[in-house]
Each structure stands twice: as C-alpha cells, then as structure tokens.
TrEMBL record:
A Pfam family it matches: adh_short_C2
Stretch forming the signal peptide: none
Keywords: Oxidoreductase
Membership in a protein family: Belongs to the short-chain dehydrogenases/reductases (SDR) family.
Protein name: SDR family oxidoreductase
Organism (species): Denitrobaculum tricleocarpae
Amino acid sequence: MSKVAIVTGGARGIGAAISKLAAARGYAVCVNYQSNASAAEEVVGEITAQGGRAIGIQADVSKADDVSRLFTESARALGEVTALVNNAGITGRISRLDETDPETMQQTIDINVMGVMLCSREAVLRMSGKHGGAGGGIVSISSGAATLGSPGEFVWYAASKGAVDSFTLGLSKEVTGEGIRVNAVSPGLTETELHASGGEPGRVARLESVVPIGRAATPDEVAQAALWLLSEEASYVSGAILRCAGGR
Ligand code: NAP
C-alpha cells in the first residue's frame, strides 16, 4: 500500500521538517498551509527535486469545511491518507492572561484543539477499519507547555496542548483496535519562527540555559520523533505522549 501523509502547517518550522522527512521515508506528502503559499511551494519543490511526491494545499484547520476539502483534494492527488500529522499551531502573543484579549485565546483553542479534532475525525473516517479503511497513524504535535503551564507567557496555549494530550489518550483507546495508532510528540523549546510570531524573537536565546541539554531542538530532531511514531518500529506504540524536550 502506498504511504500518504497529510502534514498540517507542513510548510514552515517543525511541519516543514516533518514533510521533508516523511518524503525521505517514502510518503507522498500533502503539505498543508494556512497563508504562506510560497513556503509550501518551496517544500513541495524540495521534495519533488529529490524524486518524491508532494502537493501543497491551503486550508484553515480550524474550519470544518476547509478540513474536509483538504482531505478530499489530498486523496484525489496522492491517494488515500495513511498518516496524519497534526502540527499546525499558534501561541498568540506572549503575555500574562490578564493582558491577553479573548480573541487570542479563542483563536488558539480553535486552531490547536479544534484543528486537531477536526483533522483527526476526518482521518478516522478514512483510515478506520470500521469505515472500510486500511488503517494508519495519527501523530499530534503537542508541547512540553502542557505540563509546564507556561506562566507569564501563554497559559491558554499550555491549556490547549493539555487538551491535545487528553484527546490523544482517548482517541487512541477508541480507534487503535480499528487499525489506527494515535500518538503525540511533546517538543520543548525548538528553533522556529513561532517565537517571533509570539512577539519575542529572542525567546530561544533567553530560555536555552533552562533546558537541561543546554540548547533548543532543531525542527528535524522533533520530526525524527514524529516519523518514528508513524513507523513500523513503533508498531506496538499507541496512546504515547513522547516528550522531546532535551530533559526539560
Ligand atoms: P511555526 O514555525 O510558527 O509554524 C506554524 C505552522 O502552522 C505554519 O506552517 C502555519 O501555516 C501553520 N498554521 C497556523 N495556523 C494554521 C491554520 N489555522 N491552519 C493551517 N495551518 C496553520 O511553528 P512551529 O514552531 O513549527 O510549531 C509547530 C507545532 O509545534 C505547533 O503545534 C507548536 O505548538 C508546536 N511546538 C512548537 C515549539 C517550539 O518551540 N517551536 C515547542 C513545542 C511545541 P502558514 O505557514 O501558512 O502560516
């Protein structure tokens, strides 16, 4: 059976590393993006230049209609999905809760929690043996923030990732017997544009010293964990929250 991965937010940061590593491991890759079409074109171009198959598809993971279209268009172009990586996520602007507007919190929950649930629902409908599917894997990119709480930075984001962890545990129990292993990776501090998007480009430099390993992760180090969970080497792993946080 051919391997097809949908990577949400797959054009930048950790998602781009996952898209490229998935292609190197033999997946045809649907590189989802929200607004950065040129980043998606670049990742798709790199994959196809290496002889792989990839397509970029715009969709906002927090919108049910977009998610449904994402899976339909991906299946039409690449074949039915066998692996979903729920990677798309935002923090909102770094600040205390009482300095944060409700819209930021709502948007974070919509993308980080509803996005994961909507995409996973669509994947289950297509991969579960109960629905005539051939099985597959789901990996969500959570965060060490789920257990750190992130005070003074983004407690609403930490809460959204706590929800991702609970969802991963529950869904794994629901569908592992139907041929879908469901897991999460919890990265710690990782070198991407996420910190600048949150308003603090120097966040990695500020926090590196509190990470036991003494540095931030590269996106590729997180991608390796995600691809391992999807691989046959992890054939008995479901419901795991794999911390990839340099000891933090
Ligand atoms: P990033 O570099 O800021 O990239 C975020 C990606 O998410 C972008 O590709 C963006 O698409 C996409 N995205 C945002 N909203 C979306 C939406 N509504 N629909 C579809 N795609 C959307 O972030 P990153 O650091 O790689 O983060 C990836 C994941 O890792 C996130 O879930 C994040 O919470 C988690 N994480 C990151 C760190 C870290 O230190 N960096 C640590 C722990 C966990 P566009 O390119 O179109 O904007």
